[in-house]
What we know:
Elements: H1 4-15, H2 34-47, E1 51-55, E2 61-65, E3 76-81, E4 96-98, E5 106-109, E6 114-116, E7 132-134, H3 143-161, E8 170-175, H4 189-192, E9 196-202, E10 207-209, E11 214-223, H5 239-249, E12 265-273, E13 277-286, H6 289-307, E14 315-323, H7 327-330, H8 335-346, E15 352-353, H9 361-367, E16 374-376, E17 388-390, H10 391-411
Parallel strand pairs: 3-8, 3-9, 9-16, 10-15
Antiparallel strand pairs: 1-2, 2-8, 4-7, 5-6, 7-17, 10-16, 11-13, 11-14, 12-13
Helix pairs in contact: 1-3, 3-10, 8-10
The structure holds zinc ion.
Amino acid sequence: MTNKQHIIDRFLSYVRIDxxxxxxxxxxxxxxKQWDLANKLVDxxxxxxxxxxxxxxxxxxxxxLPANVPHEVPVIGFVSHFDTxxxxxxxxxxxxxxxxxxxxxxxxxKEKNIILSPEYFDDLLQYKGKTIITTDGTTLLGADDKAGIxxxxxxxxxxxxxxxxxxxxxxxxxxxxxxxxxxxHKFDVEKFGAEWAYTMDGSQIGELEYENFxxxxxxxKVEGKSVHPGYAKDKMVNSMYIAQDFINSLPRMETPEHTExxxxxxxxxxxxxxxxxxxxxxxxxxxxxGHFQARKEMMQDLASEICSQYDRDLITIEITDQYxxxxxxxxxxxxxxxxxxxxxEAVDIEPIIKPxxxxxxxxxxxxxxLPCPNIFAGGHNFHGxxxxxxxxxxxxxxxxxxxxxxxxxxxxx
Length: 413
Ligand SMILES: [Zn+2]
């Protein structure tokens, strides 16, 4: 559909711009450097012929492709984020292009002996013969989610240049700060004006997701009583032992390392303690809303049980909800998932529909009134130096976007 070199050039022009976000910052975007790419995207959207190109004070970039059919078609949208994770450097990204991949080790950095090997990352083997873009082993790549932006931009350009392909009105949005969980926070759903949208932010080719975790964090505070150890009999209360009792009372197998698919978990992410006070930090995850609530109650119940052995409430738990499973918002409009599946099949991709063991911006957007499943962007090994993306996967994703536009118009004929 599109020229391969064109897609490579476009992708490289994005990943060479450092757009790392920063969770410590309270502004939006969280880092000034995100403006560099945001402004470039504005220019490019205008150049390819998009309409109503806007950028707001928080660097959200939006644009429209007007309908070219006379009948009413729901407005659909495509969304990607331009920031990269704070977990790994995105400065001076120096991509390498491996053409006609032979299925063997890829040396990312000879000097530092950093190898991208199919022995460890066996997903690589499905891309034999493809063109793979990797890092030089010192930074991340930024395919998360500049691959998504590349695909949306490429698809829009293609639709502008091929007016014989019929479609309704399409909206696109590029957002800052997804990687710090705020990509949807300042998203103006009303201004966007789409009936539904898709984030182009999944991984492997074929991925289609409309279920994610319900998520909360819990801070468990255990109070002890510090007394001189030599005179402590019947007086000292060591908060660390009580914390240990609490930890051990939770089901040991319901942890990230023992669960998969739709199984939820408690994850103890940190312990900080001394005799006087111990703080435990947990995250709670479950796809099922009922099970999720039960997990939160279980923590409170176990705490009261332990407290009942003492004459005061030694344990207090503060639980904060983080995000919810978008499934309840998408299921009533399942045709939007069906359309995405049909679009994939129409371009010979086998859809891989599975629950996300995490969250997406689309989940937040779904609860803000914009149902928003997630489609593959093609990259692998996000957030680190082994990140890579096959160019052909980006091409296919762009084709899926074009097909989705076409099929949506057809469905409402
Ligand atoms: Zn992403």
